[in-house]
Known about the structure:
CATH architecture of the largest domain in chain A: 3-Layer(aba) Sandwich
Strand order of the largest sheet of chain B: 3-7-4-5-6
Number of helices of chain A: 7
CATH superfamily of the largest domain in chain A: HUPs
CATH class of the largest domain in chain A: Alpha Beta
Oligomer: heterodimer
Low-confidence stretches of chain B: none
Largest sheet of chain A: 7 strands, parallel
Order of helices and strands of chain A: EEEHEEHEHEEEEEEEEHEHEHEEH
Radius of gyration of chain B: 21 Å
Mean pLDDT of chain B: 96
Number of strands of chain B: 10
Helix content of chain A: 25-40%
Number of domains of chain A: 2
CATH class of chain B: Alpha Beta
CATH architecture of chain B: 3-Layer(aba) Sandwich
Largest interface: A-B, 90 and 73 residues
CATH topology of the largest domain in chain A: Rossmann fold
Structural class of chain B: alpha/beta
Strand order of the largest sheet of chain A: 7-11-6-1-4-5-12
Shape of chain B: globular
Number of helices of chain B: 6
Distance between the termini of chain A: 45 Å
Number of strands of chain A: 18
Helix content of chain B: 25-40%
Structural class of chain A: alpha/beta
Number of domains of chain B: 1
Distance between the termini of chain B: 42 Å
Strand content of chain B: 25-35%
Low-confidence stretches of chain A: none
Amino acid sequence: MSVLVYTESEEGKFKKASLEVASYAKEVAKILQTTVTAVTFNTKDASELKNYGVDKVLNITNEKLGNFNAEAYADVLKQAAEKEGSKVVILSQSANSKYVAPLLAVHLNAGYASNVVGLPESADPFTVKRTAFTNKAFTHTKIDTDIKIIGLSNNSFGLKENQGNAIAEDFSPTLSEADFSVKVINVDKAKDKVTIADADIVVSGGRGLKGGENWGMIEDLADTLGAALACSKPVSDMGWRPHSEHVGQTGKPVASNLYIAIGISGAIQHLAGVNASKVKVVINNDPEAPFFKAADYGVVGDAFEIVPKLTEKLKEFKAKNA
Amino acid sequence: MINPNDEFGLTRAMWFKEKQGASVDVVNVGGPETEPTLRKALAIGADSAIRVNTPAIDGFQVAKQLAKVAKDGEYDLIIAGRESLDYNGGMVPGMVAALLNANFINTCIGLEVDGDKATAIREIDGGKETLTTSFPLVIGTQKGLVQESDLRIPNMRGIMQARKKPLNVVEPIETANQTSIDKFEKPAPRGAIKLIDADNLDELINLLHNEAKVI
């Protein structure tokens, strides 16, 4: 009956989104009067999960699962859900979670609601609030199946401490050859760089910066804040910045605590993609830029003057508050 | 309009047609009002179209219908946008793959086919990875799969030809949806923006620290 959670870790450390999913699962478990079981892959130490209300940990240690593999992971999660008799399975909305969830849904014959932004409004019928139309609206979606899968929007619930036991148990699911018919042959990932998906703060630049060669000051600002870098669509289309930094409707979604838009006018497709960020700051020399209507704080002026100044002042602030 | 995520996939399919001799069928689940979209795909260059004659209710129901069409047509490669632009469910490609027992690669930003082997690039959080697999294969597509400049606007010749291409309407199979929408809600209106003078950036830092509490 336990609520099942899929956790992701990197280099032995749980991703923030996984701790958030655990926090959320604990609240769901309270509603359903049950416990939380987390599934971890090749994690040596899962004790951190007990701070977020996890009662039990199923740890899978298997070299073959060293790289994420959607089909194999879906198979493992299915077996874990069956073992625990789980009626609710919760994942984040990381790239890997979004990859595995629909496979798992079919294997468990479970209804799947993605981009969920709140606790179930009722347990029977099981109704959750989710975003739709790229954050321009919410739907209250009813999941009618016996088993339910929830994809929790990153940074929508936050971390909530709850004491659990996180009793670890080794779990050895049966894997088939078919689980590995898609093979990862190379992973190309920037090390030591905060990703847009995981970042608390995102610094984003637009066409107003006039060229890729002007990104130095944007990088300085991002480094000072420990932020991820992002950009608008024209910037990635013109090749000033890599496509992987493009945020917006057709790019990556942003759901950070703070989003700083520099030289971005705020086309509706861009705003849709960054809408889920909690606080938005816009810096633009055009006071008529639509982004000023969608942001919390704004500075009208020349980014080339404001950004270096802001970086300096933030460094002073950080030094004082360190 | 064609969902941009689908359009990137359709454009890649045109490449397989022109360079590797693939035949390309387009399919959607929806009522007669969706036919102009299928005609547009035909005008871009698809060979034939299939419309499953039932409204799209949820991701699972759509995936079930598409899996039936894919099974009947014995397709090697099924290309679907990573998510729709309306409900953003992001589940149809994966569900179709699971229903067909086919291989699946999501958020695909590169695909090469060589005989019975496919090599794909997938966007991951903070990077990308390269994968190899075989057919049948389902890919969830997005921006990056083809260059934006390669996207095609149907020309007059294509539009004329599209009128003569087959658009087959098939009746749906019996299936139930797993989710349903109870009601919609608009986001709460946001408060007015606070403008900070460019010469007073300390105030911005102060607000972000003490009011918004984000730094």
